[in-house]
What we know:
The structure holds 2 protein chains of 2 kinds.
Chain A: H1 3-26, E1 28-29, H2 31-48, E2 63-66, H3 72-82, H4 122-135, E3 142-147, H5 154-165, E4 171-177, E5 180-181, E6 184-185, H6 186-189, H7 195-201, E7 205-210, H8 214-226, E8 232-237, H9 245-248, E9 256-257, H10 262-275
Parallel strand pairs in A: 2-3, 3-4, 4-8, 7-8
Antiparallel strand pairs in A: 1-9, 5-6
Helix pairs in contact in A: 1-2, 1-3, 1-10, 2-3, 2-8, 4-5
Chain B: E1 26-28, H1 30-41, E2 45-49, H2 58-64, E3 69-71, H3 76-88, E4 92-98, H4 99-105, H5 107-115, E5 122-126, H6 143-148, E6 154-156, H7 161-173, E7 178-182, E8 186-188, E9 204-207, E10 212-216, H8 220-233, E11 238-242, E12 245-247, H9 251-258, E13 263-271, H10 276-286, E14 293-298, H11 308-314, H12 319-330
Parallel strand pairs in B: 2-3, 2-4, 4-5, 5-7, 6-7, 10-11, 10-13, 13-14
Antiparallel strand pairs in B: 1-8, 6-12, 9-11
Amino acid sequence: xxxxxxxxxxxxxxxxxxxxxxxxxxxxxxxxxxxxxxxxxxxxxxxxxxxxxxxxxxxxxxxxxxxxxxxxxxxxxxxxxxxxxxxxxxxxxxxxxxxxxxxxxxxxxxxxxxxxxxxxxxxxxxxxxxxxxxxxxxxxxxxxxxxxxxxxxxxxxxxxxxxxxxxxxxxxxxxxxxxxxxxxxxxxxxxxxxxxxxxxxxxxxxxxxxxxxxxxxxxxxxxxxxxxxxxxxxxxxxxxxxxxxxxxxxxxxxxxxxxxxxxxxxxxxxxxxxxx
Amino acid sequence: xxxxxxxxxxxxxxxxxxxxxxxxxxxxxxxxxxxxxxxxxxxxxxxxxxxxxxxxxxxxxxxxxxxxxxxxxxxxxxxxxxxxxxxxxxxxxxxxxxxxxxxxxxxxxxxxxxxxxxxxxxxxxxxxxxxxxxxxxxxxxxxxxxxxxxxxxxxxxxxxxxxxxxxxxxxxxxxxxxxxxxxxxxxxxxxxxxxxxxxxxxxxxxxxxxxxxxxxxxxxxxxxxxxxxxxxxxxxxxxxxxxxxxxxxxxxxxxxxxxxxxxxxxxxxxxxxxxxxxxxxxxxxxxxxxxxxxxxxxxxxxxxxxxxxxxxxxxxxxxxxxxxxxxxxxx
Lengths: 276, 331
């Protein structure tokens, strides 16, 4: 294993740890999704994005837009790993007066670029940022993490057409395909496949990888980085609860319940996974 | 063979129909020209359209500053989200579409992407209230009612070309989001006959009068001034307070205007629910002022299609209708 991959893997492990600690303090939460996207957030924040941890408003930064507000737990965990927010603040997640609300909001948290939560907004905002940055001669990239459920929203496809029409090669969409929505499996709620073909038909450069395979993610992001002729999308198949077998095998739920005594088991399983 | 003397019915006419009276002095596309002039001085000004540049006077800006005009297609949600993104990176967007689409269709984007972060995005809505005969799909009769509840948002309903020209730089200067009810095409010029300057958040007394006070906004101020002239001939002395900013409302000016024994009449190109009339009434009630308010506004119903002059008569917005209403109230 190369040093680069190992560094990302260690970061992903710490992001998972951060997320479990936060979910335990809250007693429940979107821990399944957070564990699922920990690998891709580790790649993005420790290997791909250009940013200054102590200066979250630096104009030259790459913008990472979280349109799925309820994934905030995962992004806080990654922002702590990235040094943008202090790790000591993570246990305040979802508490009164915290800078880390359950649903991500820009005005609360350094490094949170937009307020997510109402789904199907992120890509449109990304399009505007990318148009503006290009107009200003700013080479920063705009990355939008959206979920497969967000592909239900018509506004996502409006924005996809805008990005393609304007040739916004500075936009990268990352679609987390965990195949689960609030009302059940995506296949039963509203069929979104074939996802990569849909993006290609909309004029995007599309790749699809196992979103929990760090070497594959790194290769894919490297390739997308070179591609500046059109917007790019990385479709990532992720597994809810990834890294904690107890949660991976639990009946899939959008909002996962975890009993009090299970948090330590989760942490232990996470450690066992890293040492394997 | 004789021809029956059937009077020709007025027609709905083109979408771009002006509401100017025959022979009235007008100015062409005042919004587009004002925005183009402002953009010549301010490089951060950008314009967006959702396939309605030509119909919202944004085409003037597009021709003057093509590198700062962004077409997003018939996608109002994407337009408002993109406007937010442009503002996030330091540009000052003006995004135009029809009011019905900005408010009914893309409200979630206006509210959460623009108003909640308090971004300097200026939303420009054409065909506010009853300014087209195309029927409910195009008549934004409740846009103020929808938007007044949105925190952070400044709402402007200009009277004429003069108001629009002066409002555009003021809206760009205001740090937060704004919504402008656009009058487009051949827009009457009226307010330059008065000692008037548009000031954001301020109402202006255009005319004094002892018997009646009109508190009006938008194009209804033009009608209010005409009605006041007509009533003067009947020795009814009518004051006109123009309220171009619906939010934040100039409460002091309204309380001063209503704090006399004059008949108070509100006039707006909007449904009687949730617009200027109710704002004024609430202002008075909250201040403990028990003055009765006579609303001149559109009814709480979906309006019919037809020719604008016919519809303005039918729904009580025409000068004749205003004069008749005041006479009835005073008799």
